[in-house]
Amino acid sequence: MIKIKKTMKHGKLLLVLLTNIGLFYSCVPTKELKQENNKLPNHFAQQSTDTTNSAIIKWKDFFKDDNLIKLIDTALVNNQELNIMMQQINVAQNEVKARKGEYLPFITYGVGAEIEKVGEYTRNGAVEKNLEVKEGKEFPEPLTDYSAGLFATWELDVWKKLRNSKKAAALEYLSTIEGKNFMVTRLISEIADSYYELLALDNQLAFIEQNLELQGNALKMVRLQKEAARATELAVKRFEAEVSKNQSHKFEVQQEIIEMENKLNFLIGRQPQPIARSSGGFIDTPMDTIYAGIPSQLLLNRPDIRQAEYELEAAKFNIKVARANFYPSIGLKAGVGLQAFNPKYLTETPESLIYSAVGDIVGPLINRNAIKAGYNTANAKQIQAVYEYEKAILSGYIEVVNQLSKMDNLKKSYELKENQVKALTASIDLSTRLFQSARIEYIEVLLTQREALESKMELVETKKDQLMARVNVYQALGGGWN
């Protein structure tokens, strides 16, 4: 009969416990996750559905200029911004280790020594005095206490709060890795763009110097004709002004070259110094074909999209963590050791042996506003992460479309400018001969030389834009980090 009563008592306790847990479940708020939209068109505009993609090409194979490759190699080691990002990766990696340790038992050790003198008219003092009277033995005064032991605490991860927290940290770590990869692609693109701009400035400077030589010869010719009364002082002054203008422009370009060299020096993390480069043949640099693949490959190849995806997944786990805070936490505490008022008794067991084991369940009951606010914040961050992910996809797709269109239009523009340069270059010599034979005015020679120089400068700019667009398409497709 006694056993039946005890069984019924335990059953009631179990029923109460299960009822309370059920109440906890019913009181926990639940919100639906916002689902992301990662749909993309089947192919880029005016592009085939061929999956061949230039993004998988390693950057050392994509670039053919050895000087540019050396600059990028140096930057990937010395660039300060990239090194700062590497430390952020280390921080995220340590955060994963820290959260992993939270759902494992914590075991500590302790050694202590204590001395205590209590008042005779206190409860402890009265107990000690009474013991002396009854036993006839003097109680040690002051009383010492020595102890040594091992202690363990462990929160049972019943609701997977700690495991989900660790998974969120792991995804955030992967997100920082992708952030670093995206920074690498941008760094490589910026170095390549700056390098091509430097080559373009070198070529523009060379064209200015060539034009100055032509204008110098034309100025001598005009002065001779003035002396022979075949030209006026106005013609001489106009040619002198044009020469001064181009000499001034030459110094402007030289300053731009210095600034561009120092920009590259900053990107590769070194003091200002000349940049090794080969500017000859810049105009004839071949434009290799870029294969765009299909839009859905952006989800795999672009680091910024993958970074946003990892952050979105981490946000989902953080919602689970925030929701688990509504549930009671279950903890275990245990300890074992030795304790005695005299060190010589510490090793005497079982008299000096001490141990304890405690289990507790603690959960929020009243005033859960802070937990509700944390849960609502986690949901808001998940919605924010969805928009960030969708924005990254849309931005990446538009970047590719724009750069592909730019490459196509620049190719057509370059062909027309090339024809223009050839025609104007041939007209320089023709206009000079006609002027010498007094068949045209000096102003036509002047305008022909000016237009020829401008067309050459524009041709260099267009070639530079072509090379930069090729690099930007490579980056937009997700190339450069591997």
From TrEMBL:
Pfam families recorded: OEP
Species the sequence originates in: Maribacter stanieri
PANTHER family, A to Z: OUTER MEMBRANE CATION EFFLUX PROTEIN (PTHR30203), OUTER MEMBRANE PROTEIN-RELATED (PTHR30203:SF30)
UniProt record similarity statement: Belongs to the outer membrane factor (OMF) (TC 1.B.17) family.
Keyword DNA-binding: no
Entries under PROSITE patterns matching the protein: PROKAR_LIPOPROTEIN
GO molecular function annotations of the record: efflux transmembrane transporter activity
Gene3D superfamilies attached to this UniProt entry: Outer membrane efflux proteins (OEP)
Keywords associated with the record: Coiled coil, Lipoprotein, Membrane, Palmitate, Transmembrane, Transmembrane beta strand
Main location class: membrane
InterPro entries noted in UniProt: MdtP/NodT-like, OMP_efflux
Gene Ontology CC terms: plasma membrane
Coiled coil: 407-470
Lipoprotein listed as a keyword: yes
Subcellular localization, as worded in the UniProt entry: Cell membrane
Descriptive protein name: Efflux transporter, outer membrane factor (OMF) lipoprotein, NodT family
Membrane topology, as annotated: Lipid-anchor
